[in-house]
Each structure stands twice: as structure tokens, then as C-alpha cells.
Amino acid sequence: METMPVTLADVADAARRLDGRAVRTPLLESPLLNEQLGGRLLVKAECLQLTGSFKFRGAFNKIAQLSAEERRRGLIAYSSGNHAQGVAAAARYLNAPALIVMPADAPAIKVANTKAWGADVVCYDRHGESREAITERIMAERGLTLVRPYDDPAVVAGQGTVGLEIAEDCKARGIAPDAAVICCGGGGLTAGIATALSGLVPGIVLHTAEPAGWDDTARSLAAGTRQRNEGSLPSLCDALLAPTPGELTFAINRKLVRSGVALAESDIVAAMAAAHRYFKLVAEPGGAVALAAALSGVIPVAGRTVVVTLSGGNVDPALYAKLLGGAA
Amino acid sequence: METMPVTLADVADAARRLDGRAVRTPLLESPLLNEQLGGRLLVKAECLQLTGSFKFRGAFNKIAQLSAEERRRGLIAYSSGNHAQGVAAAARYLNAPALIVMPADAPAIKVANTKAWGADVVCYDRHGESREAITERIMAERGLTLVRPYDDPAVVAGQGTVGLEIAEDCKARGIAPDAAVICCGGGGLTAGIATALSGLVPGIVLHTAEPAGWDDTARSLAAGTRQRNEGSLPSLCDALLAPTPGELTFAINRKLVRSGVALAESDIVAAMAAAHRYFKLVAEPGGAVALAAALSGVIPVAGRTVVVTLSGGNVDPALYAKLLGGAA
Fold first, then answer.
1. How many beta-carbon pairs under 8 angstroms link A with B?
2. Does B319 lie at the interface with A, CB-CB under 8 angstroms?
3. What is the pLDDT of residues A297-314, one digit of tens each?
4. B110 to chain A, minimum CA–CA distance in Å?
């Protein structure tokens, strides 16, 4: 195989950096749900990760490798909320100041938690201004180091530790998964998990899951080149609204990922309700798309063993109550 | 120390029986919440256990020790729902038929799941009939073996594996807990955890948590003899409505548990919301009382390390949505 921009060794290094810092999240299953599906469904519960999503892993792995001087000057990131919290928490553990550029309509819980981790927050209008432009201006003014949400080898390697743990837990329990479905925004979690699983679980088939209307990765995988989402459809999945796959992440994913699927909002809400009922886990909409792919039958589970990421749980209680009440 | 009816060795035996069957649930913490509390709070996430509560542990440990003939004839249990599901699941794994006597007003999710695990369910009117009388009649007619919800050494030893895991995880992470607070109905989980922790964590102080109006264990610990709850106040905590402490469990708890506390319903609902926000866990009301004790200040966390059980997550989605929406 030609040299990949992120290797299994990079993921193993990240795991060593994260040891004792990140939560080793459980790989859960529900025998009752398995029976209904006629197969075996394993849920990697990354909503139990520090900051409520997998994003802490990549941010910590990135920031830990910066120089002391870079950490002293501080970090900047743009994010709708999960990467924001991941960077804020990792920066705090590594004694670096952090400034986060967040859309004004980000979920309140994500903004509040980012501030609670000690980061400064600058808000922008997601429909008017460019977050990249704002970020670059502040970066230049203050000499800050950018922590990209996905297009960085260190971030991808950090997210890859999710895949390493999946492989280790499957091995320990004698499970040979046929497929894995990964919640996909810019593709960092996918690229990391794909790097780990394709190295450690030969023959496993990988899929991305995205919300309908935001299936740039699915279309890009089908086309072989990076596609862009048409407009800006409203979506519950605030965590997955990247306009196009990352350059680095797509270079990895186009080689290692079979295909992508898009899920309707009703299937995503049903998956949130199933996470509540069968797993006692709080899933945010964007964190439930891979589970939705498995439960809706879009990715078949019958007669197979399928792993899905439940990648985050940062959803405002009022919205959660409304969605759950409607799905009940 | 005089001989106890359940020993640390019994708990260790139960752990060996449950190995590979029960989920080894994580001990979670939230740095943001710790900061607010000025101390360290660790949550044992038993809502992630098979069947959504710790009850599977005790039921499996009991049924695994029955004779092949007893298992062939079958099992009977009475329960508002969590013990019902625990017995149904354990019986199924051990190839024994199970019949469960449940109150007609048990949460729908608990009745549905008990049936889904393959048990037969007989309903009774909690305000009219005696579940003990119904159970005894059917037992005698059919030669079934009763799996008691708490007053059985094998059940207590099984629940004690929760405490064993807490002690092991604390040791592995270099944590010396000052206190543990345990959700308490009949006292089986408390007696099991107390047996494990008092043996493995010298000096730890143990408390029970109960809903206000159902604080029979708190009053019994204070009086030194088993007290009974006055009336039958309505309570959200369907899992904790035992009328009086168990005989066996109280014999253990009066020696090992310092005191009990009673929590107002508003504090319990606030704890369910905190479990959602900080831990991404679905807690049922009865599963959130120990967390409520810590968050309300009834059991102080400031300057200390306190472990609480989050003992179950079986709550109907509609009720959950209503409580969470109100608490948000």
C-alpha cells in the first residue's frame, strides 16, 4: 500500500498520549435489540467521552504535540460546538489559552460548556460571515495556533483511537465485525477509525453516515472526487454540517471507506429514541446518524455484526425532550 | 468481626460467575461538575448494565447456583420492573422459564422489556392484592423457585459486584473515595456494595439514598431496628418503594452503613437532568436518588471524593421528556 498521511503507528502514539486522560468508552450492545435486528449491533458510546463527544481525543493529541511556546501563545479553533469543547478541555489540561469562533446559533449547551472549560468564545453569523476569515484575522493578530476540526494528521490520529479501542474490545470478546458505520461531518473521525480498523480488522467494510442534504462525503466517495453540498438546508445535526469533505480526510477515506449513506431526519430522531430505550445513552442528532443507518435498514444488520459510532451527546435538554416526546 | 451472612469471598465468586455476562460498567466523572462541586464525584453507571439496571447481577448469581432440576421447573419473582427484567434476562441466559408478578401500574417500558426477555407476566393491583400471596399460590401450584428481589445472600452477593468494580476502578486510577451513596429500596444493592467496599476500601463512609416518604432504611439505620413506611405516598421512584428494609439486608446494612438520607422529588428530577447534561446518561427517578443526594448538598462533595450509584435507566420516554423539559 502506498504511504498514507496517517498510519496505525500514529494512532497508537495518540493512544499513548491519551491514556489516563480520555475515557475508554464502552462498546455496548442490547440483546433485545439484536434479536429484533436478527444480527449483532455494537455501539461505541463516545457520548461518554470527556466533553460529551469524541472531539477531545483529536484536540488533545494535536495540542500535546505543539511546542511549549505555541501552547503559551495560545490556540484558536472554529466549531459549532463539539470541537470547541474538545479544544477548550484539551487546552485547559495542557495549560494553554484557547479562543473559539462559534456560530451564533450553536446549541446553548455547547457554548456554555466551551466557556465553562475556560475558553474565550467569539460568535459569528453562520449565514453572513466566513468563520475562516474571522479566524485567520484573529490568528494573525494574536499569533495563535489553529487547531483544525479534521484536516490535520494529529487530529485524525487522535480520533483514530476510537477505532483502536473498537478493535481491541472486539478482539477481547471474540467478535469479528463485518462492517462499521461512522458519523461523518468533515471526515476526521471516519479517517481515524478507518486507519485503525483497516489495519487491525482485515476485511471489515466501512461506511459513513450523514444527514440527508449534507451527504457530501457519500457523493464524494461515489464520484471519487470531493463534492460540495448544494445549499444550506436546515438540519438537526449541527455537528455534521461541513460543506465538503476535508482534503486530508478524503484522501484517506476514498481509499479505505466503501460508501456513504444519507439518513432522513425521522430516522435520526428514531435512533435517538432507541439510544434512550435500549442503551440508556443520550445521543445528539449528529451523534445518532450511524445508529440510524443500522436501525432503519439502510445498512443491514441481519445475519451480520455491525459496529456504529454514537459520536456525541451534546443536545439541549428542551430540544431533546421535544424530540423524544414526539418519537415516543 | 462476627460472621456476616454475605462475605467478600461470596462477592468475588459472583464476579467470576458474571464475568463475560454482565457489562463492566464505567465509573464516570465530569471535570466541569467537579469544579462546581469543589470536590470529586464519581458515577457508577449501572444504567448501562444489561436490562438497564444492576438487578441482572443478583438474579444471574442466584439462578446460576440453582440445581438443573430447579431451573428446569422454572422461576418466579415479583417486581415493579427492574428485578423483573433482571430475572427474565438471567433466566433466559440460563435456559430456565420465568414467571413475573408485576403491579398493573408498573412503567410500560419495564413490562414490555420483561416480556421481550421471554418471561410470562402476571399483573396485580398494587393497592388491592398482596403480591406475596399471589406469588406463593402460583409457586406452590407450579413448583417454581422464588428469586427474591433482595433478601437472599446470592442476590446480595451479585449486587456486590458493583462495589467490587468500584473498588477496582478506584485503585487502578489512584482514587481513595471518602464516601459512597447508594440508591436504596429493599437494601440489596446497598448490602452488596457495603460488603465489597467495607472490605476493600478501609475507612469509606457509606450512605443510602431514598425518596422522601419512602425513607424506611434511613429511619431504620437511625433507630437500629427495621422501620416501616407510613402510608403509600405517590412517588416517581417506582424502583424504590419497598415498605421496609429486608431482614437479611438490614442485618448487613445496620453494621456497615453510616446513615441514610431522603431526597425531595424536585432534587431527584434535577439529578436526572444533570445525568443528561454532564454524563449523557438516562437515569430513571429511582436510579438518580444517590446523585441527587450529592448534587443537592445533602451529602457534601466539597473537598472530598464521593461515589454514587446511578442504578437504573428504565423510564418511559414520555415521562422522561416531560420531567427533562420541566427541569430544563
1. 92
2. no
3. 999 999 999 999 999 999
4. 11
The per-residue pLDDT for A8 is: 98
B52: contact with A, CB 8 A cutoff: yes
Q: Does A228 touch chain B (CB under 8 A)?
A: no
- What ipTM was assigned to the predicted interfaces of this complex? 0.95
Q: Would you kindly state where each structural domain of chain B is located, as residue ranges? A: 8-53+152-327, 56-146
> Is residue A50 within 8 angstroms of chain B, CB to CB?
yes
Nearest residue in B to A31, CA atom: B50
> Does the beta carbon of A321 lie under 8 angstroms from any beta carbon of chain B?
yes
pTM (2 decimals)?
A: 0.96
Mean pLDDT across A202-206: 96
pLDDT (tens digit, 9 = 90+) per residue, A223-232? 999 999 987 7
Judged by a CB distance cut-off of 8 A, whether residue A223 touches chain B is: no
For chain B, which ranges sit under pLDDT 70? 1-2, 327-328
Q: Which of A31, A317, A327 has its CB closest to that of B277?
A: A317
Assign a CATH topology to domain A8-53+152-327: Rossmann fold (3.40.50)
* Matching fold, domains B8-53+152-327 and B56-146: yes
Residue numbers of A between 113 and 132 with CB closer than 8 Å to B: 113, 116-117
Q: Please name the residue of chain B whose CA is at the shortest distance from the CA of residue A319.
A: B325
Class of domain B56-146: alpha beta
Say what the pLDDT of residue A2 is: 61
Per-residue pLDDT at B328? 53
Would the CB atoms of B52 and A316 count as touching at under 8 Å? no
Partner-chain contact A23 B26, CB within 8 Å: yes
pLDDT in tens, A113-135: 999 999 999 998 877 778 888 99
Segment among A80-94, A190-204, B233-247 with least mean pLDDT: B233-247
pLDDT higher than threshold 60 for residue A66 = yes
Helix (H/G/I), strand (E/B), else coil: B212? coil
